[in-house]
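@here heads up, posting the sequence + SMILES for the zinc ion run so it's all in one place. Ping me if the SMILES looks off, I pulled it from an old spreadsheet.
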Amino acid sequence: MNFSHCTKEQAVEQAARSGRWDDDLRAHAAACSVCADIALVVRFMQLDGELARREAGLPDPGRIWWKAHLREKQMAAERAVRPIAVCQRVACLWGTLTATSILVWEWPRLSSRLDGLKLLLHQAASPGSRPQTDLFAFIGGSLFLFLFSILITLYASWAEE
Ligand SMILES: [Zn+2]
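bot reply: prediction finished. Complex structure tokens:
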């Protein structure tokens, strides 16, 4: 194979790539077979590249930018609320430990109250007996705490979503 060379190959290639030709270079490319081939190949490669980009179906750059911007905002928001989430978890753990400690600490009293509940149920089953008011307060308080803890749990799960 024998390749011919021309001193203006580089200039012709740059002009063909950019589309900015001066008159001398255009006249040279029309007269020189090497430079005419270079200009033709550069133009062919540009058209082929455009066709390949169209066939690849590249997404809209504006949409990519918008998604990246949105993602950046979401990450900033996550970073901003991270300390709050940590505090929430610590508070939940602290509340659980406190409730467990109180339950263990007060178990003897609660146990006697539960015995009272058994007695109340036994009395309720037998006719002519009167219920104990503090036992009703205990049952009502327990029910209130149970419902309150369910509400807190529901709120915590809702807030995480
Ligand atoms: Zn040439």
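MO: Residues 152 and 158 are 10 Å apart (CA to CA).
MO: One more: The mean pLDDT is 86.
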